[in-house]
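Sanity check

After download, print the first record. It should look like this:
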Amino acid sequence: MIRFLKDRAIYERVVLEAVPDAEAFVWIATADIKDLHVSSNGSFRPFLGVLADLVDRGVEIRLLHAKEPGPNFREDFDLYPGLINGLERQICPRVHLKTVVVDGRVAYLGSANLTGAGMGAKGVNKRNFESGIISDEAEIVTGVMEQFDEIWMGAKCDACQRRAYCSDPIA
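Expected C-alpha cells:
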C-alpha cells in the first residue's frame, strides 16, 4: 500500500499513528528540527515525550538532522532524561531528506521537517503546505532504510566536502 499524504494527514498518519505504534525502532531524518508538540489526551505535549515513551518501552530511536535544534527543543529534551541514553542522534549538514521509518515495516518520505509547521498540530492557517507518501511496500521501505543507514554509518563522509561545517563528524 502506498498512500499520498498532505498537510494535516502527515501529522495524523505519521506522528499520531505510526510512530507511537512502534515496537522495535523508529528512524527519523529531517533537515530542520524544532520544538514539535502533539495532541495527547486532550492537551498538547512535546513530541519528545512520545519518543521518551517509546524509549521506556525498549524501542530504539535514531534521529538524523542537519543542525543543532533551538533552545526550546533543548529545554524540552531535558524534561525527558531517558532520551539522553535512549535516543541516538547524528548531525550532518547535508541532510535534507525527510523520512520516518517504523519497525522496517512502514516508511514516510516527503517534504515535512520535524517541526510544528511541517508535521505538527498547528492549525490549518499556520501549517506549511507539505506532501509525501507513506508506504508498507518492501521496496520503498528498504530503499528509505538503505539511504538513511548509508548516511548514519558515514558512508558519504569522505566525499562530502562539507566537513568544515560538521560540528560532530559522523566518520
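If your output differs, re-run the checksum step. Summary of this record's structure: The CA atoms of residues 10 and 119 lie 6 Å apart.
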